Amino acid sequence: MSPKIAVIVGSIRNDSLNRKLALALAAQGPQDFSFEHVRIDDLPNFNQDLEKDHGEAVKRFKGEIASAAGLLFVTPEYNRSIPGLLKNAIDHGSRPYGQSVWAGKPAGVIGISSGAIGTALAQQHLRNVLAYLDVPTLGQPEAFIQNKEGLLDDKGNIGVEATQKFLKSWMDKYAAFVKQHTKS
Ligand code: FNR
Question: Can you give the residue ranges of the NADPH-dependent FMN reductase-like domain (predicted)?
Fold first, then answer.
């Protein structure tokens, strides 16, 4: 069975650019990985009073992360940080204390926005959280994608050749990074 990459998209908007980017990345990724979208929109608000049993959705979410060889975070920037929905999912995966599912899972961090700095600050905040959770992240190349008309469609096609080449090379580096962290 091919190793699974858990793809976590920080937007649940119907026409999300980040979901389109996630599809495009999976299409560029090596065939020896399977890319599986992990749902985060059905997770309840994290409440430490309930952290021992937050219910089925949280169990499912933690199981999907625990069984993944690697993580791919594709997130928008909300007010110069990550969306609350994504932070909520990360917090669920980290608890109860001592039962985090994140530690040691190699991760890629990427995103797209309409803004000129293309999610740079959201990515920096996310890296900060992931470092605390002992999640190694691919450092280079960084990927800050600014949306342009026709760049991405719903089927994972990339409309600009230079961006397609860049995302392909980013995925190659990401796949090598995951393999390096999972071979032992
Ligand atoms: C945004 N947007 C945004 N863009 C950006 O580059 N930096 C930012 O800080 C913000 N802040 C922000 C806050 C909130 C609450 C919203 C709703 C939006 C714009 C954002 O990049 C744009 O809406 C993207 O298209 C969102 O990603 P999805 O939903 O298309 O994946």
Answer: 3-148
